[in-house]
Write a structure and sequence with these properties.
It contains 13 helices and no strands. Helices cover 75% and strands 0% of the residues.
């Protein structure tokens, strides 16, 4: 075989026009089905017959879905037209390009003899053989070889033109798919992407940090109830033991801090979609009540008055206590008891007036961010205001704060602890993994 006698054979143009055509047909069929679905959804959205709130909600969603479905149909139809055009171009490239490649192979087969004959005769002539018959055969071999060389040039040009057309068709297909994608208006813009990232971050925080905040809030509520009762007890004892007045003031300040922390936890849980707005406002009212009570009721102002009223007695009692092991007990005067009762009454008034507001807001306002446009089709919307499960008797301790000088609510809270922290803990262990106790070694 004469390897020097064959022209290079180009690669076969890849691709299967039948497969591309099947894709085009599938996209076209899908686009038609989507347009029909969009038309049905539009008809449902335009129906004015009201059957129930659930059906109205479905109808509202159908209007939005109709537009989205139509846009998807636009994308699929654009893809179908693009694939159909590319299938035709690919078929032409196969016909012309691969056909030219086949002609090149046949040209090599046909011209191989003459090219080999040309090489042999040329070698003989170069070594000095001037036989006229040899020279005539060389001339015929040159003519035949040149013919096949010319044929190869023609076929190769035809192949290269087919490849160029095929590459242009590929670029047109890519641009067509991009145009179909752009015309559908389904892709998110820059700010849509930013909002999507923020939503993902919000969902992750709600999933992993939410249970921790719920447990923390439950623990803070229990601590606040304990601190409220301790502050009440120490406030009364401060009348008899003046040195306890700073401790009572500290406990009151700690109760305020705990109230603000509980409010902060509820606000964060609301932003995560795990708490109602009513609970947030109720905790805010409770925190504000604690601050007002601390300033006007049994708070720092009261303890400053108690400390000042007993400053002289404290100094004298300290001198006596220095030389005695008997605890110092000072009998309060009627003015000091009146000041305490007046301050506690102010706190009781604040608590009593805030009780109904706190109650109706916490029990009635059920609005949650997690239910804002995220409920399934056909499901009834969650009411923004609902008092069906409210228990009015829960307001009695707050109303009784006036008659009991602000002591009813703290004492009632001690016997009404919320042990639902178990549910929050179980939810958190579902997210973070179970926590197992192991015996100490």
């Amino acid at each position: 075989m004469c390897f020097r006698c064959d022209d290079p054979i180009p690669d076969e143009i890849p691709g299967n026009p039948e497969t591309v055509s099947s894709f085009a047909k599938a996209f076209s069929t899908t686009a038609e089905a989507l347009r029909e679905a969009a038309a049905e959804l539009a008809n449902l959205a335009n129906d004015d017959i009201t059957i129930s709130e659930a059906v109205d909600e479905v109808r509202s969603k159908a209007g939005d879905a109709s537009g989205d479905t139509e846009r998807v149909a636009v994308r699929y139809q654009g893809a179908a037209e693009t694939f159909s055009a590319y299938a035709g171009s690919l078929s032409d490239a196969h016909t012309n390009g691969n056909g030219a490649r086949t002609q090149i192979i046949s040209n090599n087969d046909n011209g191989r003899y003459w090219r080999h004959r040309q090489n042999q005769l040329r070698d003989q002539a170069m070594w000095g053989n001037t036989d006229p018959e040899l020279l005539a055969d060389l001339e015929e071999a040159n003519r035949q070889a040149n013919h096949y060389d010319s044929q190869y040039t023609t076929y190769l040009a035809q192949y290269n033109a087919a490849v160029s057309s095929w590459e242009a068709a590929v670029n047109d297909a890519v641009n067509g798919l991009r145009d179909a994608e752009s015309d559908s208006n389904l892709n998110d813009g820059f700010w849509d992407g930013v909002l999507g990232d923020l939503q993902l971050l919000w969902e992750l925080a709600s999933k992993y940090l939410g249970p921790v905040l719920e447990i923390l809030r439950d623990v803070l509520e229990i601590l606040k109830k304990i601190v409220d009762v301790l502050a009440l007890i120490v406030t009364v004892l401060a009348l008899f033991i003046p040195v306890l007045a700073p401790l009572a003031a500290a406990l009151s300040a700690l109760a305020v801090i705990l109230s603000v922390a509980i409010f902060a936890c509820s606000a964060l849980l609301f932003l995560m979609g795990r708490e109602s707005l009513g609970r947030v406002l109720a905790d805010g009212i409770s925190a504000l009540t604690s601050v007002i009570t601390s300033k006007l009721g049994g708070g720092s102002g009261l303890f400053d008055d108690v400390a000042g009223a007993f400053s002289g007695v404290t100094q004298r009692g300290a001198a006596v206590a220095a030389g005695s092991t008997v605890p110092l007990v000072v009998r309060p005067t009627s003015n000091q008891v009146a000041d305490l009762l007046q301050s506690q009454t102010i706190g009781g008034l604040v608590s009593a007036y805030g009780t109904p507001v706190n109650y109706f807001v916490s029990e009635g306002l059920d609005f949650e961010l997690s239910h804002l446009g995220q409920r399934p089709w056909g499901s009834p919307p969650k009411p923004v205001w609902d008092l069906s499960d409210a228990t009015p008797t829960d307001m009695l301790p707050g109303f009784a704060d006036i008659a009991t000088f602000g002591t009813a609510s703290p004492l009632a809270g001690m016997f009404d602890w919320d042990y639902d922290t178990g549910a929050s803990w179980n939810e958190m262990t579902d997210v973070w993994g179970s926590v197992n106790a192991v015996p100490a070694s």
